[in-house]
Amino acid sequence: MHQRAVRNLAKLETTQARITRLFDAAAGGKNNFLADKDTVRHFDQATPALTNAARAVLEFLSRMIRHLATVEGIDQFMIVGSGIPSGLPAGNRLHDLARRTAVSDPRVLYVENNPMVVAMAQATIEPFTDLVRVVEGDAREIDDVLRDHVVQTFLDWDRPMAVLLLSAYSLDDDEHAHYVIKRLRHTAPADSFLGLLHTTFDGIPPELLPAIRDMLTMTLPHLAIRSREEVAALLEGLDLVEPGLVWVPEWRPGDGDLACRDEPSSSGNFGAVARIP
User: Fold this and answer.
1) pLDDT, tens digit only, all 277 positions of the chain
2) Structurally, what CATH architecture does the domain formed by 2-9+56-276 represent?
3) Would you kindly state where each structural domain of the chain is located, as residue ranges?
4) 183-190 own/partner pairs: CB under 8 Å, 24+ apart
5) Which of 51, 54, 263, 266 is deepest in the core (most CB within 10 A)?
6) Backbone angle region of 22, left / alpha / beta, with phi > 0 → left and psi within -120 to 50 → alpha
7) Which parts form a coiled-coil structure per UniProt (predicted)?
8) What does pTM read for this prediction?
9) Angle 77-117-40 (CA atoms, 0-180°, nearest 5)?
């Protein structure tokens, strides 16, 4: 584990912003660098929404985990591209929530392509629990992810699980995005669930779009942005859990979930959970 963490850190890029670190910085986490904090400041100067959007996304992820564990009875999770957010309160990271709410000891497998996130999690989470694993992988290389030895052996592929695809923002080719969803749908056992988070421009006022597009071109040039109709197409044929594909603050909100509640579209993200037949 130590050698793997060292290799990951050797590939670490600290001078350019990365989307998972951006959300971590905006939510007050520690898994980010100056470049990420600077980008958050630039975005907030254009439209003061990124910080609230990041919190809305974290609240959605927490609600999704709780629902899948308590209502659907899921006790194993493969979480792809969450960044293992450090902006969540202590004891409320995604695997903590799964452990507290699942009916049995849940297994949580994180798949991350960010070397810093992988190395930190392997050093600070794995040594303290046998129920969490972190592997290096990228949604864009989904075949390699699914062939990974830890992925194949840590989870029980004969029982239902939840596959949470939180890095759809990296799938900027539509055909490949559909392929990734198809591979996950057909690989997951029957009665599993697919969770999806996706960035959109649908809620941005037209007068702000040019500035936002210019900033993304400079900071996150390959970020995939899709309309609600395009995101819905990725989920075609699946049975969506109520309330369906909605702005993330609208997905089963709790009383304490306040981020972007008054203006859900300012979250900039759609979310959905679907049953895999």
Assistant:
1) 444 444 444 445 556 666 666 667 666 666 667 776 776 666 665 555 667 888 899 999 999 999 999 999 999 999 999 888 766 766 788 999 999 988 789 999 999 988 878 888 888 888 889 999 999 999 999 999 999 999 999 999 999 999 999 999 899 999 999 999 999 999 999 999 999 999 999 988 888 788 777 766 766 678 899 999 999 999 999 999 999 999 999 999 999 999 999 999 989 999 999 999 8
2) 3-Layer(aba) Sandwich (3.40)
3) 2-9+56-276
4) 183/142, 183/143, 183/146, 184/142, 185/238, 185/276, 187/146, 187/157, 188/161, 188/163, 188/276, 189/157, 189/158, 189/159, 189/160, 189/161, 190/160, 190/276, 190/277
5) 54
6) alpha
7) none
8) 0.85
9) 110
Cβ-contact 18, 191 below 8 angstroms = no
Q: Quick one: tokens of 196?
A: 């999806």
* C-alpha–C-alpha distance, residues 59 and 204, integer Å: 21
User: How many residues in the chain?
Assistant: 277
**Look-up: residue for tokens 């309309």?**
227
